Amino acid sequence: MILVTGGAGFIGANFVLDWLAQSDEPVINLDKLTYAGNPETLQSLQGDTRHTLVQGDIGDVALVSQLLARYQPRAVVNFAAESHVDRSIHGPGEFIQTNIVGTFNLLESVRGYWQNLPQENRDGGVAPTKNRFRFLHVSTDEVYGSLKKDDPAFTETSHIEPNSPYSASKAASDHLVRAWHHTYGLPVLTTNCSNNYGPYHFPEKLIPLMIVNALAGKALPVYGDGQQIRDWLYVKDHCSAIRRVLEAGRLGEVYNVGGWNEKANIDIVHTVCALLDELRPRADGKPYKDQITYVTDRPGHDRRYAIDARKLEAELGWKPAETFESGIRKTVQWYLDNPDWVAHVQSGAYREWVQKQYA
Ligand code: NAD
Ligand code: DAU
After folding, report:
1. Is the pLDDT of residue 122 over 90?
2. Which of 18, 72, 162, 183 has the CA that lies 20 to 30 A from 45?
3. Looking at the chain, which runs of residues are DSSP E strands?
């Protein structure tokens, strides 16, 4: 049994779906079901006794302690967070609350549970023990700040220099996780990953927003000069990295996760447009790139991220399965094949369903 937090969001849900496709080990999925948490993504698991979705906050110590005591997980994988940089600029409060205070409360609940686990499992069974327990914290490359054009990629020892309220809150949570290991001995692992893309990505983020706006005949808003660089990783490759770190990562260590796929934003947008031209041409025969509109830049916009994932590759033998070309094609196709999912998240219709289900 593992406890996943934020498992109704983009990466968490992909992780839960992949986990249960590959193993019968049950998952307790604790998610607050904010605007970004959509249980529809997990619809294929309805009636599957290996998956239990619980609506709740990682910061709710009573609830989390009760879940830990009841289900006795051997690991906690913490995806839960406010994740969108633009939202953090307009309203940082929720980011402080969930990403910092929430992580602190979660760590305290987990510490209370872990401290009372037996040291060893004498009957050789699968019950969790103090030694085998793991807390894996899912974090971001944004904690390292911004790179100049020719700077080497971020390694695990790069300075922590977050620039947005989002990245500062994630950096704070990473520090708390580190401190709970050094001070209390909690068996933690941290992963810092680059930009993910793939199915079930909320259409406020660059790639899904461009696909969805293009199909709706809307403008494709590119911030500033569009020359900002991100490293892109297909979400299922991030999930496989997390599984590998959970399985074999060294306690207290940080592992960078990335795809060696640095791309300028404008090139990403052109790639999406070209794929749509091929797969769903515009009715008027014009190219989707005609919809590109340069707009005011994001305040404090980080210029470049690049991830050096050699530690994870060399120590744990992880490798991404997708190239950017294969992953982006699958992603565009997924959005073309799933208009209902998109319509529901755009209209907020899934929120009504959540309210009925979890009232
Ligand atoms: P997301 O916004 O799609 O999903 C976040 C999920 O967390 C949602 O289901 C939401 O309901 C839930 N949640 C929010 N606050 C909560 C709370 N207080 N208690 C319980 N659940 C709560 O985010 P994502 O893109 O899937 O990111 C998941 C994690 O991965 C985050 O920690 C993020 O910082 C990290 N990360 C994301 C990326 C990326 O490119 N998306 C890259 C690296 C790291
Ligand atoms: O690097 C990992 C991070 O990637 C994660 O930690 C965050 O949770 C995730 O949201 C993502 O952050 P970014 O800010 O890089 O992602 P976003 O999709 O918001 O933007 C990607 C780039 O595209 C960024 O340089 C801003 C730009 N952009 C974004 C949007 C939404 C645009 O030019 N236009 C847009 O409309």
Report:
1. no
2. 72
3. 2-5, 27-31, 51-55, 75-78, 134-140, 188-193, 195-197, 220-223, 229-234, 254-257, 262-264, 292-295
Domain count across the chain: 1
Q: Is the beta carbon of 259 within 6 A of some atom in ligand 1?
A: no
pLDDT tens per residue, range 288-326: 999 999 999 999 999 999 999 999 999 999 999 999 999
How far is residue 340's CA from residue 224's CA, in Å, rounded to a whole number? 32
Instruction: Write out the residue range of the structural domain in which residue 123 sits.
Output: 2-357
Full-prediction pTM beyond 0.70?
A: yes
Is the Cα torsion angle 234, 236, 239, 240 positive or negative in sign? negative
Contacting residues for 83 by C-beta, under 8 A, at least 6 apart: 9, 10, 36, 166
Q: How many angstroms does the Cα of residue 211 sit away from the middle of ligand 1?
A: 21
Does the beta carbon of 272 sit less than 6 angstroms from any atom of ligand 2?
A: no
Residues labelled as active-site residues: 141-142, 166
3-state secondary structure of 346: helix
Q: What is the CATH number of the domain that holds 284?
A: 3.40.50.720
Q: Judge whether 240 and 273 are in contact, CB under 8 Å.
A: no
CB of 2 closer than 8 Å to CB of 25: yes
Supply the residue whose CA is at minimum distance from atom 29 of ligand 2: 206
How far apart CA 271 and CA 173 sit, in angstroms, is: 34
- The predicted-structure confidence for 23-65, as pLDDT tens digits, reads as follows 999 999 999 999 999 999 999 999 999 999 999 999 999 999 9
CB of 201 sitting under 6 A from ligand 1: no
Nearest C-alpha neighbor of 113 from the set 66, 80, 54: 66
Nearest-angstrom CA–CA distance, 223 and 209 = 13
- pLDDT (0 to 100) of residue 355: 65
Q: What is the mean pLDDT of residues 233-240?
A: 98
CA distance 210 to 197: 12
d(CA 220, CA 176): 38
Separation of 63 CA from ligand 2 center, angstroms?
32
> What mean pLDDT do residues 77-89 have?
98
